[in-house]
Write a structure and sequence with these properties.
With 397 residues, the protein is an alpha/beta fold. Helix content is 39%, strand content 17%. The protein has 13 helices and 15 strands. The structure holds pyridoxal-5'-phosphate.
Length: 397
């Protein structure tokens, strides 16, 4: 099919919810993808922080093919070795004893919200309030878009679920003021992604942990985007030495195969009883095999450490671009390979210019170029993307 044929069918039959780039992608290898016309792109969006191993990683491909031949799905009415071992593996890696598998970040967060409510209500029936941050992103279900502190995601869907409150991110005084015995959870991204790549001050998360302890509230850390080694540690909260009560994962967990996870401390997890929560697909053997394979490569190739080193190199190069284009680039920030470049304007034009020059990135929060490449990228790929961005910025001058 030609790109035009694909675009015409999509325009007629797909729900009109996405503003897509006029590109139809057909295959990928490592950090590169090719479109239907054979044009090659360097992929520094990685399916929005999903393809942590890049495209077509042999170990992941082999594990998926092998598992598909053995069994794709069987229902959570039965045990599978793949799911039990993945739960044990994530428990060991996170220090949180209990795991539930979903299919996406929104579903993992929906489960976290439900668990926090049940846990809070067992203490006191009005201990139900969940505090989240402005500019956060937690998903598109009704509860998770309510948790998301960006009103434009909520407009049109009212009435929204009750019991959510919002505070500015990285502002301890505001959080302290918002907390009360009614607070059952504080839900935060350790590094905000969709909201524009915001890294908190060093003391923020440890102090949030203390506030949660003081009020008997659970700390939910949404690691859907920042987790899986992207920031230089398997979980972003590990940079600050805090231990959340509940952690959610998705995006990179299956290396591209849909899987989400909710991890919880034993005592909190005990608030759920048989029948309290569930899923048809979540944690099926195919998804669990993909997550195992992704975690294998993460460990074998020491990708978190590699992401830390590449991220430092990448941000140094981007600061070089900032010096060259001071009127266009306002800030470079991030951790590891979760990088944001705040621009003075024309974010979507820069994305389009980069695409013309063979680079895939996106623009979030209206003005922040989001650079979340596969964790397997090497210096040569970083240099190639910096050259693409240099040329793209030059196009706009
Ligand atoms: C992408 C994202 C989600 C939602 O994940 P989906 O898989 O799209 O439902 C939730 N939280 C964060 C931090 C995200 O980046």
């Amino acid at each position: 099919m030609t790109k035009q044929e694909v675009m015409a069918l999509d325009a007629r039959h797909y729900l009109p919810v996405f503003t897509r780039y006029p590109v139809a992608l057909s295959r990928g290898e490592g950090p590169y993808v090719w479109d239907t016309e054979g044009k090659k792109y360097l992929d520094f969006l990685a399916g929005i922080a999903v393809n942590v191993l890049g495209h077509a990683h042999p170990h992941l491909v082999q594990a998926i093919a092998q598992q598909a031949g053995q069994m794709i799905h069987c229902s959570n009415l039965y045990y599978t070795e793949q799911q039990a071992t993945l739960a044990a593996r994530l428990a060991a890696l996170s220090g949180l004893e209990r795991v539930f598998f979903a299919n996406s970040g929104a579903e993992a967060n929906e489960g976290a919200i439900k668990l926090a409510r049940k846990f809070g209500k067992a203490v006191n029936t009005d201990k139900i309030e969940i505090i989240t941050a402005w500019e956060s992103f937690h998903g598109r279900t009704l509860a998770t878009l309510t948790a998301t502190g960006q009103p434009h995601y909520q407009h049109g869907y009212e009435p929204l679920p009750a019991g959510f409150a919002y505070v500015p991110y990285n502002d301890l005084a505001a959080l302290e003021q918002a907390m009360s015995p009614r607070t059952c959870a504080v839900m935060l991204e350790a590094i905000q992604g969709e909201g524009g790549i915001h890294v908190p001050d060093a003391g923020y998360l440890p102090a949030v942990r203390q506030l949660c302890d003081r009020y008997g509230a659970v700390l939910i850390c949404d690691e859907v985007q920042a987790g899986m080694g992207r920031t230089g540690k398997l979980f972003a909260f590990q940079h600050w030495g805090v231990q959340p009560d509940i952690v959610t994962m998705a995006k990179g967990l299956g290396g591209g195969v849909p899987i989400g996870a909710l991890l919880a401390r034993e005592q909190v997890a005990q608030a759920f009883h048989p029948g309290d929560h569930g899923t048809t697909f979540g944690g099926n053997p195919l998804a669990c095999a993909a997550a195992h394979a992704t975690l294998d490569v993460l460990a074998q190739e020491q990708l978190p450490q590699h992401a830390a080193a590449m991220g430092e190199y990448f941000m140094a190069q981007l600061r070089g671009l900032q010096a060259k284009y001071p009127a266009l680039i306002k800030a470079v920030r991030g951790k590891g390979l979760m990088v944001g470049v705040e621009v003075a304007g024309q974010g979507p034009d820069i994305v389009a210019a980069a695409m013309r020059r063979g680079g895939l990135i996106n623009c979030t929060a209206g003005k922040v170029l989001r650079l979340v490449p596969p964790l397997i990228v090497r210096r040569q790929h970083v240099d190639e993307m910096v050259a693409i961005l240099d040329a793209a910025l030059g196009d706009l001058c």
